[in-house]
């Protein structure tokens, strides 16, 4: 924690932009901890809350946009050869692809909150050629929510940031399962609604 504070003292808000940009590329950086610390520092007058959110958000979404473009243009063969450098091997691509098949593109909304997923979602979304507009909308909304949540955690819990984040990580699996269940329910209801429309139309024609 001390080393991050030292970085803030030297480089200010650019730590948030650069760190979250790097983390989005799957380069190790404790983004959530950095945002929480900066949130706490905003209560001490060291940083301005809105600037913290702005620099964090821009760093995160620029990074995920870059990874989406890389995935879109390079495709699976590129990651089969070079994916090991960002810990994205074919098995991991297949696993994340399976999640997209199961939960749909709305998975992008919650990926920031899932450790081990947010770092690769941009790459895999590009490889799968997910619609650009869809990716940007879900990615940018999810990114903003993620940034605000962790910055506000820092403001609320103060010096007990590390303990609180550890507690969150312990219950992250439960949160992921709940979010996944919600996504499955949404997808099921949408598909049921779509299938019901032709059936109703067919029944109307038969009555006519």
From TrEMBL:
Q: Output the InterPro entries linked to this UniProt entry.
A: DedA_domain, VTT_dom
Q: Which residues form the VTT domain?
A: 30-155
- Highest taxon above the source species: Bacteria
GO CC terms for this protein? plasma membrane
Q: Which residues cross the membrane?
A: 12-29, 49-71, 135-156, 168-189
Record keywords, A-Z: Membrane, Transmembrane, Transmembrane helix
Q: Which family does it belong to?
A: Belongs to the DedA family.
What protein am I looking at?
VTT domain-containing protein
Source species taxonomy: Bacteria, Bacillati, Bacillota, Bacilli, Bacillales
């Amino acid at each position: 924690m001390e080393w991050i504070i030292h970085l803030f003292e030297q480089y200010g808000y650019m730590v948030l932009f650069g760190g979250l940009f790097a983390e989005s590329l799957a380069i190790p950086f404790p983004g959530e901890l950095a945002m929480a610390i900066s949130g706490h520092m905003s209560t001490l007058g060291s940083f301005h809350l809105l600037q913290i959110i702005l620099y964090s958000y821009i760093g995160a979404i620029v990074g995920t946009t870059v990874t989406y473009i890389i995935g879109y243009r390079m495709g699976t063969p590129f990651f089969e050869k070079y994916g090991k450098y960002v810990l994205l091997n074919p098995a991991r691509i297949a696993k994340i692809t399976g999640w997209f098949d199961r939960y749909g593109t709305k998975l992008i909304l919650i990926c920031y909150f899932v450790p081990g997923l947010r770092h690769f979602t941009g790459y895999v979304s590009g490889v799968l050629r997910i619609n650009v507009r869809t990716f940007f909308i879900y990615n940018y909304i999810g990114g903003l929510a993620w940034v605000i949540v962790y910055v506000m955690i820092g403001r609320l819990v103060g010096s007990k940031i590390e303990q609180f984040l550890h507690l969150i990580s312990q219950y992250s699996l439960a949160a992921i399962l709940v979010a996944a269940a919600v996504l499955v329910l949404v997808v099921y209801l949408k598909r049921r609604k779509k299938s019901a429309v032709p059936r109703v139309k067919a029944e109307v024609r038969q009555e006519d």
